[in-house]
Amino acid sequence: MNNQREDKQFDISLYVSKYFNPVLERKRIALSILLVCFLLSLIMTWLTRPEFITYADFLIEEPRSKKIDKRERPEVVPKKAETQYVMAEAEKVKSSSMAIAVLKILPDIAKEDLKIRLGLGSQLIGGIKGLFRKEEGERIKKPIGERSESPLDASTRMARLAEMHERLRVKTSTDRSMIRINVRTINKKVGPIMLKSYVDVWLATNLEDNKKEIRSKADFASGQKNDAYQAYKKAEQEMIEFRTHFQLPAEIRELRDVELQLEMRRIDAALEMAKRRFHLLDEIYLDTRVQEAGIIGNVTSMGPPMTTVAPTRFLRKRLIVYGIIAGLILGIGIALLLDFIKSPIRHECDIKKAVHIPILGHIPRI
């Protein structure tokens, strides 16, 4: 029972002898593999292209449609939007519909930049192909702005949209109700152009969303005004027909016949009521149109787009880190694999498995 309990206890010497000592004995192999992987990753960094990052910050305020009530005092400092609204705006910027709208207005210089995929695997494959392609240098030397692109087919459009989604980064700060948009490009001049295209489409969409509520009220008021106008014209026509039928001049307001007098008063009251209703709805409609024209977007830019002065080395640094990690894993794995193939006796458990005899004691090292 005591022996079984001792076997179940954690023995650090077992792990040291089984895993640490083999790697230590074959440290030259492990270090050599680590150095080779590091050099390979360093060489592969030359196949990647440097990237420029263009970014801009935006403050998200409360939707303007909530500030239409005239009884409320206008706020000097705009109220920040709620967390859910900020997150919804961020998802709107990253949506496929936004990318499709942006792709339609992108100039040719930006579409040319999108042809180069910025993923790590894509850049490595493209760099290797570029080494064996002589005409690649001539194509790069030709100014990008001089090439005009033909209309995109379905597959090309999907590839451009996927690349736009890969290059776009949207970060939210819900406590400050702010959104930062990052765009990665190969050409430094393309970054502000692409970011401005995103911002233009986003601001236009945001303005339409803010006007949507008051526009629905304006459309409803317009319909009611048209109905009131038709009722007013109908009541006016009824008054004309009544006076024409009984040959009553317009200046006559009192009649001797009681029934005709009551009928004329009824028609006149209906005409006056229809006229008042039409003028009231016309004022409401004009008021809603004025409010709609006065609504602006609730997205405020905190400054012009900023582009990094020097190209970022993030992709190259990540590739070097991947090479170091791969070298460590591969070097340690090969050292342990060689030790597993030789199957040396490194611990007393190996002796027990080999001879099936219990160990009575240890000979100390002197």
CATH top level of the largest domain is: Alpha Beta
* H/E element sequence: HHHEHHHHHHEEHHEEHH
Mean pLDDT: 80
Strand content: 5-15%
Helix/strand-derived category reads: alpha+beta
> Level of helix content?
55-70%
Over the alpha carbons, how many angstroms does the gyration radius reach? 39 Å
The domain count comes to: 3
Q: How far apart are the termini?
A: 33 Å
| Count of individual beta strands | 5
> Could you list the spans in which at least 5 consecutive residues all have pLDDT below 50?
4-8, 70-74, 134-149
Shape: elongated
The CATH topology of the largest domain: Bacterial polysaccharide co-polymerase-like
